[in-house]
Design a protein that fits this description.
heterodimer, A: 256 residues, 5-stranded mixed sheet, 12% helix, B: 355 residues, mainly alpha, Cytochrome Bc1 Complex, Chain D, domain 2, two-stranded antiparallel ribbon, 15 helices, globular, peroxidase (chain B), Cyt_c-like_dom_sf (chain B), heme (chain B), Di-haem_cyt_c_peroxidsae (chain B), iron (chain B)
């Protein structure tokens, strides 16, 4: 009979320890952003890389050999207009299958938000040359002759050109810069991805999709025969990337 | 009730017994943290130091002695330093180095510096060794390098008049094994830090560059010209390498698979590690197979000599034209800039030499 006492205590502790499960209502919630990728609904991971198997809107067959991009400035706007910005940025690296999930250190209060959004790339306040050691260490920088700061995206691969030769492309998105004159002239190319209205009741995971095909189609049909490399100093190409990129992201689901 | 008293007594005895270990004094070698250059501190992430092999004065001293000692080779004729000489930024001048039997290898000996900042810890041209400690295992037993066995090496060191004591000072044991040998060598290798080139001094405001060198830097950073920075870093990455693996268009038909041999993935065939561009003045010949004797040949390769192949890196542009077609002036200036990355203090550092 004496043995029942410790068993009872153990059971009580076990039951109490369950009390921190996600089923409980919390007043502060973690938000996680998962990034997955597709080519017109066909899922893409790094296991699909290195093989020419996709066709862009202009009809070029292509492969992907590298894809990484930067997101930052996660912002939650309450219905009363209050804005909560979560510090941090995340370099999504599809090539190495790393950072596909990002949970900012800060939490947000539960409640209804008129919008949750993130920035593709860095805004001008954040895009300061050389200040991020992790990004410097992975050579994510933009040359100072193009204004410095950091890349927003590196999408690379091969395509079959109009002489049927496999040719490399390096679709690198940065802040647009015209370096043809005596002084550099810039145009912003970071953009906000609005995930819409959401009521946060618990720790929440936003499942975000990037349709890579969109970078080549809407509104600018991308001709890789013309635009395949040396795109960083190409002001017009950067504007086209910016316009197309705004259609590349969508919210697939939210789990909480 | 008696049972409870017994249980509590047992618990107290365990607690007391476990506390008694704390009174035993354990030998601790003298910590010797890496001296991280300010430029590295400012710009890039901290170096990788394994938790089970911290830098110590005694470990580094032992590692240095081992690095320069031919005792590691089968017939006591070859030390690490024979192919990794200080005056050549810890490589040698040969295209392929010969081992104890005079047989040549098939890859150019890599220079050694700033190795603790190889964040992915993949070493060798083909990334076949993970961690610096594991890298040091390979040459000792390679049949065309030192051609020894670890049993032999450990035995020779154990019977040596000095080494058992040096291992005891470094690791608290005089029982020598391969693990401790490679740990010591790795500690020494991590101290081989190069950060005092002309360009480093320019960056910290303690030196100037010529017009040619500055133009060469612009060629290096210009995506329409050299476009070297995507793989070799910039003023914001003082390593001057991405420590990643690329096919840089050396051959139309790849015979040495490089990384592909290690991963088994055909998409990696012909890929080799981007070497750092520091200390090029001392590290000729160049490329994984040492095929280029001069920097001019290297620059000409990227300018006009690219060969297409299925795994050539997409960053190798204008392949159909052979490359980026630099002007003679840009080539000369690029070379001038590259040479500003050489660190004469590093190759003359007495801490790294054998006296």
């Amino acid at each position: 009979m004496q043995r029942i006492v410790p068993i009872f205590i153990f059971s009580l502790i076990t039951l109490l320890s369950c009390g921190t499960d996600n089923d409980d209502i919390v007043s502060q919630a973690n938000v996680t952003f998962n990034f997955s990728h597709n080519w017109d609904a066909s899922p893409i991971t790094n296991t699909n890389f290195n093989t020419i198997q996709y066709t862009n809107a202009n009809g070029e067959q292509l492969s992907i050999t590298k894809l990484r991009y930067l997101i930052s400035n996660i912002t939650c706007q309450k219905e009363n207009g209050e804005i909560i910005t979560l510090d941090g940025y995340n370099l999504v690296d599809v090539t190495n299958n790393t950072n596909l999930s990002f949970t900012p250190l800060s939490t947000i209060p539960t409640g209804t938000y008129s919008s949750v959004s993130f920035t593709f790339g860095f805004n001008n306040d954040d895009n300061i040359d050389g200040i991020y050691q992790d990004l410097n260490s992975t050579s994510w920088n933009v040359p100072t002759i193009l204004g410095g700061g950091y890349h927003f995206m590196q999408l690379e691969g091969k395509f079959v050109d109009n002489t049927t030769t496999e040719t490399g492309y390096a679709y690198h998105a940065i802040k647009a810069v015209d370096n043809s004159g005596a002084t550099l002239v810039f145009n912003d190319t970071f953009f906000e991805v609005d995930l819409g209205k959401i009521t946060i009741t618990n720790n929440a995971t936003f499942n975000i999709e990037m349709n890579i095909a969109e970078w080549f189609v809407n509104p600018n049909t991308w001709d890789l025969n013309v635009l395949n490399n040396m795109l960083m100093p190409n002001f017009n190409a950067q504007i086209m990337m910016f316009e197309n990129g705004k259609n590349a992201f969508s919210l697939k689901s939210v789990n909480q | 009730m008696k049972q409870w008293i017994t249980h509590i007594s047992c618990l107290l005895i365990f607690i007391c017994a476990s506390c008694s270990n704390e009174t035993i004094e354990q030998y601790v070698p003298t910590p010797s943290p890496l001296q991280i250059p300010q430029l590295f501190q400012d710009k890039i992430l901290d170096p990788v130091i394994p938790i089970n092999n911290p830098q110590t004065v005694e470990g580094i001293t032992l590692g240095k002695k081992l690095f320069f000692d031919p005792i590691l080779s089968a017939n006591n004729t070859q030390a690490c330093a024979d192919c990794h000489a200080p005056e050549n930024a810890f490589t040698d001048v040969d295209r392929f180095s010969d081992g104890v039997d005079g047989i040549l290898g098939n890859r150019n000996a890599m220079p050694l510096f700033n190795l603790a900042w190889n964040y992915d810890e993949k070493f060798f041209w083909d990334g076949s060794a993970f961690s610096l400690e594991h890298q040091a295992f390979a040459p000792v037993t390679d049949p065309i390098e030192m051609k020894s066995t670890w049993i032999e090496v450990a035995q020779k060191l154990q019977e040596h008049s000095e080494y058992p004591n040096l291992f005891n000072l470094a690791f608290g044991t005089s029982t020598i094994d391969s693990s401790l040998v490679t740990k010591a060598i790795a500690q020494f290798e991590r101290t081989l830090i190069s950060s005092n080139s002309k360009f480093d001094n320019y960056l910290i405001g303690e030196g100037t560059l010529t017009t040619e060198e500055l133009n060469g830097f612009n060629v290096f950073m210009d995506e329409t010209k050299g476009d070297c920075f995507h793989c070799h870093g910039s003023e914001n990455n003082p390593l001057w390498t991405d420590n990643l693996f690329h096919n840089n268009g050396l051959d139309a038909v790849v015979t040495d698979l490089g990384l592909g041999e290690v991963t088994g993935d055909p998409a990696d065939n012909g890929k080799f590690k981007s070497p750092s561009l520091r200390n090029l003045a001392f590290t000729a010949p160049y490329m994984h197979d040492g095929r280029f004797a001069t920097l001019d040949e290297v620059i000409n390769h990227y300018s006009e000599g690219l060969q297409n192949s299925p795994t050539i890196d997409p960053l190798m542009k204008k392949v159909a034209q052979g490359g980026v077609q630099l002007s003679a002036q840009d080539k000369a200036d690029l070379k001038a800039f590259l040479l500003t990355l050489s660190d004469h203090e590093f190759i003359n550092n007495s801490d790294f030499k054998n006296f």
